[in-house]
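FAQ: What does a ligand-bound record look like?

Like this one, built around zinc ion:
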Amino acid sequence: MEKNTSHDHDHNHGDQSTNHNHNDCIESALATAETLCVEQGQRLTKVRRRALELIWESHRPLGAYQLLAKLAEEGFNSAPPTVYRALDFLLSAGLIHKVESMNAYLGCVHADKEHKGYFLICDDCHNVMEFDYQDIHAALIEKAAQQGFELRAETIELTGLCSACKSHPTGANV
Ligand SMILES: [Zn+2]
Ligand SMILES: [Zn+2]
Ligand SMILES: [Zn+2]
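The answer part, i.e. the structure of the complex:
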Protein backbone atom coordinates (compact mmCIF):
# COMPACT_ATOMS: atom_id res chain seq x y z
CA MET A 1 0.00 0.00 0.00
CA GLU A 2 1.10 3.53 -0.74
CA LYS A 3 2.36 5.32 2.27
CA ASN A 4 1.63 8.82 1.05
CA THR A 5 -1.99 8.87 2.08
CA SER A 6 -1.16 8.14 5.70
CA HIS A 7 -0.60 10.83 8.25
CA ASP A 8 2.72 11.87 9.62
CA HIS A 9 1.57 11.64 13.18
CA ASP A 10 0.59 7.98 12.94
CA HIS A 11 3.46 6.77 14.99
CA ASN A 12 2.98 8.87 18.05
CA HIS A 13 -0.70 9.28 17.56
CA GLY A 14 -1.24 6.56 20.11
CA ASP A 15 0.01 8.87 22.79
CA GLN A 16 -3.19 10.76 23.31
CA SER A 17 -1.82 12.49 26.35
CA THR A 18 -0.06 14.85 23.99
CA ASN A 19 -2.38 17.68 23.18
CA HIS A 20 -2.78 16.98 19.54
CA ASN A 21 -5.40 18.74 17.50
CA HIS A 22 -8.00 16.06 17.26
CA ASN A 23 -9.77 17.88 14.43
CA ASP A 24 -6.76 16.98 12.31
CA CYS A 25 -7.34 13.32 13.15
CA ILE A 26 -10.97 13.62 12.10
CA GLU A 27 -10.12 15.46 8.91
CA SER A 28 -7.47 13.02 7.84
CA ALA A 29 -9.70 10.06 8.72
CA LEU A 30 -12.42 11.44 6.47
CA ALA A 31 -9.96 12.21 3.69
CA THR A 32 -8.55 8.67 3.91
CA ALA A 33 -12.10 7.32 3.83
CA GLU A 34 -12.94 9.29 0.68
CA THR A 35 -9.79 8.02 -1.03
CA LEU A 36 -10.31 4.41 0.01
CA CYS A 37 -13.92 4.42 -1.10
CA VAL A 38 -12.94 5.71 -4.53
CA GLU A 39 -10.20 3.06 -4.78
CA GLN A 40 -12.60 0.32 -3.71
CA GLY A 41 -15.40 1.56 -5.96
CA GLN A 42 -17.61 2.16 -2.95
CA ARG A 43 -19.76 5.09 -2.02
CA LEU A 44 -19.20 7.00 1.18
CA THR A 45 -22.86 7.86 1.59
CA LYS A 46 -23.96 10.63 3.92
CA VAL A 47 -24.88 8.26 6.70
CA ARG A 48 -21.63 6.29 6.38
CA ARG A 49 -19.60 9.49 6.40
CA ARG A 50 -21.43 10.95 9.39
CA ALA A 51 -21.19 7.66 11.29
CA LEU A 52 -17.43 7.63 10.72
CA GLU A 53 -17.17 11.24 11.83
CA LEU A 54 -19.16 10.57 15.01
CA ILE A 55 -17.03 7.54 15.81
CA TRP A 56 -13.97 9.74 15.34
CA GLU A 57 -15.20 12.46 17.66
CA SER A 58 -12.91 11.12 20.32
CA HIS A 59 -10.40 8.36 20.90
CA ARG A 60 -12.98 6.53 22.95
CA PRO A 61 -14.89 3.79 21.20
CA LEU A 62 -18.53 4.49 20.48
CA GLY A 63 -21.27 1.90 20.97
CA ALA A 64 -23.81 1.16 18.25
CA TYR A 65 -26.65 2.52 20.36
CA GLN A 66 -24.82 5.74 21.15
CA LEU A 67 -24.21 6.14 17.45
CA LEU A 68 -27.81 5.39 16.67
CA ALA A 69 -28.99 8.03 19.15
CA LYS A 70 -26.67 10.67 17.71
CA LEU A 71 -27.75 9.95 14.15
CA ALA A 72 -31.39 10.06 15.19
CA GLU A 73 -30.87 13.48 16.78
CA GLU A 74 -29.55 14.72 13.47
CA GLY A 75 -32.52 13.43 11.55
CA PHE A 76 -30.84 10.51 9.82
CA ASN A 77 -32.73 7.31 9.28
CA SER A 78 -31.44 5.70 12.42
CA ALA A 79 -33.30 2.42 12.31
CA PRO A 80 -30.92 -0.21 13.70
CA PRO A 81 -30.49 -1.97 10.32
CA THR A 82 -29.36 1.29 8.72
CA VAL A 83 -26.86 1.93 11.46
CA TYR A 84 -25.57 -1.64 11.47
CA ARG A 85 -25.20 -1.59 7.71
CA ALA A 86 -23.19 1.61 7.95
CA LEU A 87 -21.02 0.03 10.67
CA ASP A 88 -20.53 -3.13 8.61
CA PHE A 89 -19.47 -1.04 5.68
CA LEU A 90 -16.97 0.97 7.72
CA LEU A 91 -15.61 -2.24 9.27
CA SER A 92 -15.21 -4.05 5.98
CA ALA A 93 -13.58 -0.99 4.41
CA GLY A 94 -11.09 -1.06 7.28
CA LEU A 95 -12.03 2.44 8.41
CA ILE A 96 -13.02 1.43 11.92
CA HIS A 97 -12.33 -1.44 14.30
CA LYS A 98 -14.62 -3.15 16.71
CA VAL A 99 -13.28 -3.24 20.25
CA GLU A 100 -14.86 -6.50 21.35
CA SER A 101 -14.44 -6.14 25.09
CA MET A 102 -16.25 -2.80 25.00
CA ASN A 103 -18.69 -3.78 22.27
CA ALA A 104 -17.91 -0.47 20.61
CA TYR A 105 -16.28 1.00 17.54
CA LEU A 106 -13.08 2.95 17.11
CA GLY A 107 -11.74 4.93 14.17
CA CYS A 108 -8.64 3.36 12.67
CA VAL A 109 -5.55 5.57 12.54
CA HIS A 110 -4.02 3.80 9.57
CA ALA A 111 -6.95 2.61 7.56
CA ASP A 112 -4.86 2.64 4.40
CA LYS A 113 -2.62 -0.16 5.66
CA GLU A 114 -3.58 -3.79 5.90
CA HIS A 115 -3.42 -4.70 9.58
CA LYS A 116 -5.13 -6.24 12.58
CA GLY A 117 -6.36 -4.01 15.35
CA TYR A 118 -4.62 -4.63 18.66
CA PHE A 119 -5.58 -2.26 21.41
CA LEU A 120 -4.45 -0.70 24.64
CA ILE A 121 -7.50 0.30 26.68
CA CYS A 122 -7.18 2.79 29.52
CA ASP A 123 -9.25 1.73 32.54
CA ASP A 124 -9.39 5.28 33.72
CA CYS A 125 -10.17 7.62 30.80
CA HIS A 126 -11.36 4.81 28.48
CA ASN A 127 -9.28 6.08 25.60
CA VAL A 128 -8.23 3.26 23.36
CA MET A 129 -5.16 3.24 21.19
CA GLU A 130 -4.01 0.87 18.55
CA PHE A 131 -0.55 -0.51 18.89
CA ASP A 132 1.88 -1.92 16.46
CA TYR A 133 1.13 -5.52 15.80
CA GLN A 134 3.58 -6.92 13.28
CA ASP A 135 5.87 -8.76 15.71
CA ILE A 136 3.01 -10.09 17.79
CA HIS A 137 1.09 -11.13 14.70
CA ALA A 138 4.05 -13.10 13.38
CA ALA A 139 4.62 -14.72 16.77
CA LEU A 140 0.97 -15.72 17.10
CA ILE A 141 0.87 -17.27 13.66
CA GLU A 142 4.01 -19.22 14.39
CA LYS A 143 2.86 -20.45 17.82
CA ALA A 144 -0.57 -21.41 16.48
CA ALA A 145 1.00 -23.21 13.53
CA GLN A 146 3.10 -25.27 15.96
CA GLN A 147 -0.23 -26.62 17.25
CA GLY A 148 -1.46 -27.14 13.71
CA PHE A 149 -3.90 -24.33 14.31
CA GLU A 150 -4.97 -21.84 11.69
CA LEU A 151 -5.73 -18.42 13.15
CA ARG A 152 -8.86 -16.61 12.11
CA ALA A 153 -9.49 -13.94 14.69
CA GLU A 154 -6.90 -12.20 16.79
CA THR A 155 -8.59 -10.22 19.49
CA ILE A 156 -5.91 -8.52 21.53
CA GLU A 157 -7.23 -5.94 23.92
CA LEU A 158 -5.01 -5.02 26.83
CA THR A 159 -6.19 -2.95 29.75
CA GLY A 160 -4.24 -0.63 31.99
CA LEU A 161 -3.43 3.01 32.53
CA CYS A 162 -2.48 5.35 29.72
CA SER A 163 0.44 7.69 30.17
CA ALA A 164 -1.80 10.71 30.83
CA CYS A 165 -3.75 8.91 33.55
CA LYS A 166 -0.57 7.53 35.05
CA SER A 167 0.78 11.02 35.53
CA HIS A 168 -2.54 12.47 36.74
CA PRO A 169 -4.17 9.77 38.85
CA THR A 170 -7.93 9.95 39.33
CA GLY A 171 -8.94 12.23 42.15
CA ALA A 172 -5.78 14.27 41.89
CA ASN A 173 -7.88 16.96 40.27
CA VAL A 174 -5.17 18.47 38.17
ZN1 LIG B 1 -6.81 12.47 17.66
ZN1 LIG C 1 -6.31 0.09 12.67
ZN1 LIG D 1 -6.20 7.19 30.45
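Follow-up question: can I read anything off the structure? Yes, for example: The pocket of zinc ion (ligand 2) is lined by residues 97, 108, 110, 115, 117, 130 (CB under 6 Å).
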